[in-house]
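Render this sequence as a predicted structure.
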Amino acid sequence: MKYVVFIFVLFASCKGTGESQIVKEQTPLTTQDSLKIETYVAKANKSRLDPQNYQKYLDSVLLIKPDSAYFWQQKAMPLYKARKYSVGKPFLKKAADLYPEKYLSYSAFMKCLFSKEYEESIEEFMDMKERFGDSYVMDHTYNFYIALDYLQLNRFDEAKAFLLKSKEQQFADFPDDPPYEACHYMDWFYLGIAEMELKNYEEGIKMFDTSLQVYTNFADAIYYKAVCMKWLGKMDDAKILLEEAIKNKENTINEDQVFYEIYPYQTFHRLSSSSRQQPQNK
């Protein structure tokens, strides 16, 4: 019996940018099965605006290749983007079970930012760290997302501790960059949030200023800097900063996921902008 290996160009990437993703399927398939999968993939690509047919064609692929973690992840991803977390969760779990080195951290990321299952997210990231070591997922360290989980659980000391771990990890990984660039500006922003929640307002301002060295008009950082100024009794400075933040409100968190979810502590978000318009007086 003859076997072939196909390279499939599939779907939009999980970052939501519309870019295609190339995946190599290494498990040998018969020529007939490979051609069937190729047909179903083409039909799925044409069904992006028809979620039920999209899922149906992926189900057809998985009947042939049930051990493909990638196709299970592809079933889950659009459901999470549609906020149908409970429906997508078993598919994402299947992907993580089949290929934990790749998809366990992705599952933990989705639970942090999408489904808001913070305790489960922490457990999965800690499992990932123990089994495979520290690394990155969706442009940030595991420690960064663990810190966001702890922020959302109001466990601010632990959030700060993991953000400091994330900072040191990036310093080690990018030793030739200046500190304010080696560590992502989002890490500096959330370090500012953690310090603010711990009532270390002057330290919080320093962290927000460092974030602003890279993202100079970052409205959310300016806003929380104003909050810190207010708590320090510097009301005039706080008022000026608040006006500046509102002026720059379009310069909010610019991660790819902001088109699907609001980030923790994100003041100026892009979701449902029409709902923020003031009604006209009649």
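Summary. Residues 1-25, 278-282 have pLDDT under 50 and may be disordered. The CA atoms of residues 15 and 138 lie 8 Å apart.
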